[in-house]
Specification:
Strand content of chain B: 5-15%
Strand order of the largest sheet of chain B: 2-1-3-4
Largest interface: A-B, 63 and 52 residues
Radius of gyration of chain B: 18 Å
Radius of gyration of chain A: 22 Å
Number of helices of chain A: 17
Helix content of chain B: 25-40%
Number of strands of chain A: 12
Largest sheet of chain A: 6 strands, mixed
Number of strands of chain B: 4
Order of helices and strands of chain A: EHHHHEHHEHEHEHHEEEHEEEHEHHHHH
Largest sheet of chain B: 4 strands, mixed
Shape of chain B: elongated
Distance between the termini of chain A: 33 Å
Helix content of chain A: 40-55%
Distance between the termini of chain B: 24 Å
Oligomer: heterodimer
Order of helices and strands of chain B: HHHHEHHEEEH
């Protein structure tokens, strides 16, 4: 698997190839924690100003401007404030945070500490998905190392700024990547999302002001302090600042984590050259899901020759979204009905059951897809599925419902030729191994 | 992330008042988890503590839950409410090696069905079952964040990536 930067100097991936890159020693030899020192000499407002100027947008999937999120935290609140790192990476196709935490845990700690200093917080939690237990061990070790060097804990670097960093584990629930569900989970409850407003910035963890940021968002913060917000932004485009990690999987020769400047041109070159081209030379590109399973799937002819820019605006113009940057490349051997059925099962399994449209809607979608896959499709099923999606999208309590609807709408609208034989009852999926039926 | 125990929802849970016992070391470890959260927010430690219970008792059982209820000043139902939400908690015993094969899209299109079939055939069980010698349980789970190194599976907490049937054979041979 490849881990490298293309079209820019590696920033997020600067240290990942160094030997023992996870240790404090190597991190400090490479300017580590220097930017925390610099930030602690700045005023909190100046730090937030730099982050705003950088146009850093949340890298977890929603793409909300980070500086703006930070500025929502009420300064005069007498309550304890919390910084929570969302490391519940579970969007299908996404695996970038995993390598950042595995190989550069101190960058995350430094980013969290800068955020804590800017927002006057004394407590940080790193909420990591339960399956990534080995990463929690790495993070624990890194926090202890930093504590021994007076970088975490009381009176950091001899100042009057004190901040604790704790790891916390999830236990296998995709919904806990939604920030309010994550907070419910962190409080020891079922991972149900909460009503917004109040937003977490006002009433989050323990009803106190809380900022929840993705791993990649927080590891970008030291870079922004180092370079200055404007210079960091200028690595990308005016509206999509900086660089972004893309997790590439599926039918390419070189899957991996790639760091690209925002606005990288173009997607065709990225797939067919940078990622080594199609896995099997005689198989053509069929489609791409560019931002994790929850975004609209793109057809090959929306990519080839279209000079799609890889940033927030470019992908919207091309009919999809950046999402979490989980890039799934699909070749012509894949049956889109089968792949969509697979994702439908995912959303059904991960729906938390809190609201009716999502709980019932995803269940019905699976039932319909199963019936179609067994060869009992009917021509009116296409409209039935779209109607169902319409009853989920925008009507569910949180974005999981929207995500499920988009994944399915995209497939059915853009690959009608794959659905057609099923809808006439002429085809059944034959790839189901016997074992799967249980 | 799939639950190993769909039967939980149809079978009655055996209710008991017995409370589990843990060694002083384990209890100390549990107290360490509590130090991460504000003193009046002990419930926050619930998920980390449930993993301790599962590690010590093999699965999340009644006695363990009764212990946690006392430890955290919660009702037993508070704990079951949380336990049943999360797919990593096993509600009945699993084999010594819990094989969890990722079934989501990136793994599926790159060979997961073949790996699943191979493992099930080799062990002579279906997905969701445990071998008679209680050594292996096979589950299909949702995305484990290893899409670039697909197909993959997790045995216990260990990731095994870029799987081939030969690699799986070698791996299963090495597990005692």
């Amino acid at each position: 698997m490849e881990i490298k930067a293309i079209g820019c100097e590696p920033l997020q991936l600067k240290r990942v190839h160094l030997e023992n890159s996870h240790t404090l020693k190597v991190y400090q030899e490479n300017d580590g924690y220097k930017w925390l020192k610099k930030a602690m000499e700045m005023s909190p407002d100046a730090i937030i100003g730099e982050v705003k100027a950088s146009v850093l947008r949340g890298r977890g999937g929603a793409g909300f401007p980070t500086g703006m999120k930070w500025s929502f935290v009420p300064k005069d609140s007498p309550k304890q404030k919390y910084i929570v790192c969302n490391a519940d990476e579970s969007e299908p196709g996404t695996f970038k945070d995993r390598y950042l935490m595995e190989r550069d845990p101190h960058a995350l700690i430094e980013g969290m500490l800068i955020a804590a200093f800017a927002l006057n917080s004394q407590t940080c939690y790193i909420y990591t998905r339960g399956e990534y237990k080995y990463l929690i061990d790495i993070m624990d070790e890194a926090v202890e190392e930093a504590r021994a060097a007076n970088l975490v804990g009381k009176n950091i670097l001899g100042s009057d700024f004190s901040c604790e960093v704790y790891t916390h584990t999830g236990a296998g629930a995709y919904i806990c990547g939604e920030e309010t569900a994550l907070l419910s989970s962190l409080e020891g409850y079922r991972g149900h999302p909460r009503m917004k407003p109040p937003f977490p910035a006002v009433e989050g963890l323990y009803a106190s002001p809380t900022v929840v940021n993705n791993v990649e968002t927080l590891t970008a913060v030291p870079q922004i302090i180092e370079m200055g917000g404007i210079s960091w932004r200028d690595l990308g485009t005016e509206k999509s600042g900086g660089t972004k990690l893309w997790s590439v999987s599926g039918h390419v020769k070189k899957p991996g984590v790639y760091e690209l400047p925002m606005g990288y041109a173009d997607m065709e070159r990225f797939i067919l050259e940078d990622c080594g081209g199609m896995l099997r030379d005689d198989k053509k590109l069929k489609g791409v899901i560019p931002g994790g399973s929850s975004v609209y799937i793109m057809r090959a002819n929306d990519v080839i020759g279209k000079k799609v820019l890889m940033d927030y605006e470019g992908l919207v113009a091309a009919g999809s979204l950046v999402g979490s940057g989980g890039f799934i490349v699909i070749d012509e051997t894949v049956d889109i009905v089968d792949s969509t059925k697979n994702l439908t099962e995912f959303y059904k399994h991960e729906s938390c059951g809190w609201c009716t449209p999502c709980r019932e809607g995803t269940d019905w979608l699976v039932k319909i897809f199963n019936r179609i896959a067994e060869g009992n499709g009917r021509p009116e099923d296409a409209q039935l599925i779209l109607d169902l999606c319409d009853n989920i999208e925008g009507k569910s309590f949180c974005a999981l419902g929207d995500a499920a609807a988009w994944a399915i709408q995209g497939a059915i609208k853009r690959f009608p030729e794959d659905f057609k034989p099923y809808l006439n009852g002429q085809k059944t999926t034959s790839t189901e191994p016997e074992a799967r039926k249980f | 992330m799939a639950s190993v125990a769909p039967t939980f929802y149809t079978n009655q849970v055996q209710v008991t008042d017995e409370v589990a016992n843990f060694s002083p070391e384990v209890v100390e470890e549990m107290y360490l988890h509590l130090t991460k959260y504000p003193p009046d927010r002990k419930r926050s430690a619930l998920i980390p503590l449930l993993f301790v219970i599962q590690r010590e008792r093999g699965y999340v059982d009644n006695e363990g839950v009764n212990f946690l209820a006392r430890f955290l000043d919660l009702e037993v139902t508070d704990i079951w409410e949380t336990v049943t939400f999360y797919s990593m908690f096993n509600l009945r015993p699993v084999g010594k090696h819990h094989i969890q094969i990722c079934k989501t899209l990136s793994c599926r299109i790159i060979g997961e069905p073949k790996i699943t079939e191979h493992i099930c055939n080799r062990l002579g069980i279906h997905v969701g079952e445990t071998t008679d010698d209680e050594k292996f349980t096979v589950s299909l789970v949702e995305c484990l964040g290893s899409c670039g190194t697909a197909p993959m599976m997790q045995i216990g907490f260990d990731y095994h990536e870029d799987l081939t049937t030969e690699k799986v054979d070698k791996l299963l041979d090495s597990l005692s």
